[in-house]
């Protein structure tokens, strides 16, 4: 330890309270940055998990064309007036009749993680005098589970039982409560074409989304095709998951070259979801960086006060032969020491806060505690940014101290 570092040590230890406040300022900023970003990342992850519980990264379906083809060509004669009122685009076919062929083609793309077919229709579900509308989904249980981990959200019964029982149905928890049924009861399902069939409830689904749980009902896709009198390759939706859901838009462009049906990535169909996720990230980073910068101002004030209080000592040091660089080294050593000690304490406190949040009971989706993410990148960034802010906050007063004229100070 050289002379400058020994002087810096004396300055730090002679005012313990100031040292403690400075260290706590840095620690508070870093710990809050880590806690907020870990929590917001957890919230975003759980939001994504809930979203992709029932929504695929890419959806292929049969939709009306946006272009309305004129039923009568424009007259060539300029004296003839053509008037067509209320022109409509008529859909001659519904659903996707060759869904299996499309699925096989999609599975050859290297970016695609899984494909599942669904047959979705609106139905009426009746239990005695209680009846309600519901969204009935005929699903491929194995592929569905691969895409959405549906089995994880089955709170009673077993998803694979749908393949074994043609009269088996799984209801959302909210839907079962609405019509007053439980596992083992029978219900009547009626289609819009007047076809009715009796099903036995073999399980209950709780996805974490109240809207989904109050309206969804699952049967096997083979049973759904029989119920709605469709061919063995019919589906209303081809659902596709990619290895990286952020890459869904790019993969959707490749899929459009394989089929004439409507191809939609989750970003294109959910602008609000993308915007709200982005806003949460921006808000968390803005607030946590503000905390770190405010902590930096606190250190600047403390170092500035130290320079003013020790102005005569600085003058004496310069009169004894210490130059401006020595003075800068003395005060920068102090700020670096505060930054390092505060940084390590902040990392420890931040990790403690995140662990405490991780055990706070809070039921959401598949989690029973508040959602948090332990991200090493947040810890490294918080420590680095805190150290840089501390260095800048210490350099400005030290530069001022290095310019002190000892003659003027000692004369008073």
UniProtKB/TrEMBL annotation:
Residue ranges annotated for the ABC3 transporter permease C-terminal domain, each copy included: 286-406
Residues that span the membrane, as ranges: 20-40, 282-303, 330-354, 379-396
GO annotation (BP), single: lipoprotein localization to outer membrane
Protein species of origin: Tenacibaculum todarodis
Protein name in the entry: ABC transporter permease
Family according to the record: Belongs to the ABC-4 integral membrane protein family. LolC/E subfamily.
UniProt keyword Calcium present: no
Protein's membrane topology: Multi-pass membrane protein
Residue ranges constituting the MacB-like periplasmic core domain according to the UniProt record: 20-257
Source organism phylogeny: Bacteria, Pseudomonadati, Bacteroidota, Flavobacteriia, Flavobacteriales
Coiled coil: none
A Pfam family recorded for this sequence: FtsX
Matches recorded under InterPro entries: ABC3_permease_C, Lipoprotein-release_system, MacB_PCD
Keywords attached to this entry: Cell membrane, Membrane, Transmembrane, Transmembrane helix
Subcellular location: Cell membrane
GO CC entries: plasma membrane protein complex
PANTHER family xref list: LIPOPROTEIN-RELEASING SYSTEM TRANSMEMBRANE PROTEIN LOLE
């Amino acid at each position: 330890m050289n002379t400058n570092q020994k002087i810096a040590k004396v300055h730090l230890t002679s005012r313990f309270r100031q040292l403690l406040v400075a260290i706590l300022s840095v620690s508070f900023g870093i710990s809050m940055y880590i806690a907020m970003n870990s929590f917001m990342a957890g919230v975003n992850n759980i939001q994504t998990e809930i979203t992709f519980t029932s929504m695929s990264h890419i959806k292929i379906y049969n939709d009306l064309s946006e272009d309305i083809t004129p039923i009568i060509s424009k007259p060539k004669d300029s004296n003839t007036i053509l008037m067509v009122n209320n022109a409509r685009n008529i859909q001659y076919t519904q659903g996707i009749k060759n869904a299996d062929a499309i699925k096989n083609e999609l599975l050859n793309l290297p970016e695609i993680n899984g494909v599942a077919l669904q047959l979705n229709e609106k139905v009426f579900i009746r239990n005695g005098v209680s009846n309600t509308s519901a969204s009935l989904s005929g699903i491929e249980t194995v592929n569905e589970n691969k895409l959405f981990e549906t089995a994880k959200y089955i709170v009673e019964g077993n998803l694979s039982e749908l393949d074994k029982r043609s009269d088996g149905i799984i209801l959302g928890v909210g839907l079962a409560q609405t019509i007053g049924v439980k596992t083992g009861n029978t219900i009547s399902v009626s289609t819009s074409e007047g076809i009715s069939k009796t099903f036995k409830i073999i399980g209950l689904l709780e996805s974490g989304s109240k809207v989904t749980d109050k309206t969804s009902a699952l049967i096997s896709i083979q049973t759904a095709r029989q119920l709605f009198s469709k061919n063995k390759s019919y589906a209303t939706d081809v659902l596709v998951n990619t290895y990286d859901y952020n890459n869904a838009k790019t993969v959707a462009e490749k899929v459009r070259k394989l089929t004439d049906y409507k191809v939609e990535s989750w970003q294109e169909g959910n602008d609000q979801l993308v915007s709200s996720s982005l806003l949460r990230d921006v808000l968390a980073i803005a607030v946590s960086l503000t905390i770190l910068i405010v902590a930096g101002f606190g250190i600047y004030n403390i170092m500035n006060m130290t320079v003013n209080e020790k102005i005569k000592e600085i003058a004496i040091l310069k009169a004894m032969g210490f130059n401006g660089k020595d003075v800068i080294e003395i005060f920068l050593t102090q700020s670096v020491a505060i930054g390092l000690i505060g940084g390590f304490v902040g990392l420890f406190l931040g990790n403690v806060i995140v662990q405490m949040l991780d055990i706070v009971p809070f039921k959401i989706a598949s989690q029973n505690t508040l959602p948090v993410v332990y991200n090493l990148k947040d810890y490294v960034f918080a420590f680095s940014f805190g150290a840089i802010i501390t260095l800048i906050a210490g350099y400005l007063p030290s530069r001022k101290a290095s310019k002190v004229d000892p003659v003027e100070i000692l004369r008073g």
